Amino acid sequence: MVYVERNAQADIIAIYKEPRPNAVEALSPDSTEVIEFINMANTNFNHSDTALIRVIEDVVDVLISKNLLRLTDLPVAAQEKLLSRKTLRQRLSNSLDLLVDSDQGLL
C-alpha cells in the first residue's frame, strides 16, 4: 500500500510509502489513480527534460560563438548528439517554412 495526499479538489498531489499527517489514505500501488499520478509526473519530467536540453544546446551555441568552447572540446558522443539535434531542428524549421505563406500565414 501507498499513502496519498490530496488537494482541495481531491486530486492526488503526493504519494508516500508511510502514512503522514496529510497522507493517511491508503491505496494500492496498482490503483488507477496512483498510476495516473505517476504517469503525469513522468510526463512533467519529460517536458522539463526537453526544455532543459534546449537550454543546454543554446548555452553550448553561445559558448562556441564567443570562442569560449570548441565543439571538438566535447566528447565525440556529445558532438554527435549536438550536431544531430541541430540538423533535426534545421530540417523541422525548413519544413515549417514550406507550410507558411508570408502573406497568408499557415497554408
Written description of the protein model:
The protein contains 2 helices and 5 strands. By secondary structure, it is of the alpha+beta class. The chain has a domain at 1-52. Strands 2-1-3 form a 3-stranded antiparallel sheet, with helices on one face. It has a two-stranded antiparallel ribbon with strand order 4-5. Strand 4 and strand 5 form a beta hairpin. The longest helix has 34 residues, at 32-65. The chain starts with a strand and ends with a strand. This is Tryptophan synthase subunit beta like protein. It comes from Chitinibacter fontanus.
Largest sheet, in brief, is:
3 strands, antiparallel
Beta strands, count:
5
Radius of gyration: 22 Å
Residues in β-strands, percent: 15-25%
- In helices, the fraction of residues equals 40-55%
Q: What class do helices, strands and sheet pairing give?
A: alpha+beta
| Low-pLDDT regions | none
Shape: elongated
The termini sit apart by 53 Å
How many helices does DSSP assign? Answer: 2
The helix/strand order is EEEHHEE
Strand order of the largest sheet: 2-1-3
Q: What is the subunit arrangement here?
A: single chain
Mean pLDDT: 89
